[in-house]
Amino acid sequence: MKDRKKVKRGRPANSSGKKTRERLMRAAASHFSKAEFSDVSMDAIAAEAGLTGAAIYNHFASKDALFIATAVHMTRTNLQTIEQAIAEQEGWRDQLRAVLMLYVDDQTGWFQYPMLTPAVQLKMLRNRDDYSEMLSLRRDYAAQFEKIIAGAIAEGDLPDHLPIALAGQLMVAFIYNGMGTVLSHRGDDVDVQRIVDATAVMLGGTVSANRSGS
């Protein structure tokens, strides 16, 4: 008697279930960016994603699970975008400009939640075990900016005694915490390009963040 092939049950990876999770995480990012964690309602997130309050639990077991999944997904997606932006440029100034311009030319839509980053960092400090994946991604983030720092040192634009790892972490904090805070406090009418330009000048001296590169 031939053995029956085991049939995998559940939604395939490329089914509507994956798209639903994406909608839920985007809705969650929006809510968690605007309010304290305790004030965010799972029902409100579900409604924004076009689901009922009960249906959200078919995808995420709890609000904590949704928060962590959203943070990891956003961070991993943005990290991949940053890696590509840096890899496509040669000089450190062009690499820095390319990273900053991701706030303007946000192709994935995940750079529009700047205030989610400090919320995640606060939770990481309080519970490192649950946020171990985020901590690992944070180190990967810093590694990308270490490439920019190393390039600036190699070109003689930064002193060679500068600790590269520390400088990379500081650049991450300046860009994603500093810029994120300014973008949030300036409101919906903020001129993102002006903030990017100012950040580029402060970090890179003669760096221009304009699209033309002039």
What's this entry about, in short?
The protein is mainly α. Helices cover 61% and strands 0% of the residues.
Structure description:
The chain has a domain at 63-204: Tetracycline Repressor, domain 2, CATH 1.10.357.10. By secondary structure, the protein is an all-alpha fold. It is elongated, with a radius of gyration of 20 Å. Helix 7 (164-186) packs antiparallel against helix 8. The chain has helices at residues 16-34, 42-48, 63-87, 92-100, 116-126, 132-154, 164-186, 192-204.
* Sheet of most strands: none
Tell me the span between the first and last alpha carbons.
Answer: 74 Å
Give the class-level CATH name of the domain at 63-204. Answer: Mainly Alpha
Portion in beta strands: under 5%
- CATH architecture descriptor text of the domain at 63-204: Orthogonal Bundle
Average of pLDDT: 82
CATH fold name of the domain at 63-204: Tetracycline Repressor, domain 2
Shape summary: elongated
Question: What share of residues is helical?
Answer: 55-70%
Unreliable runs, pLDDT <50, ≥5 residues?
Answer: 1-14, 206-214
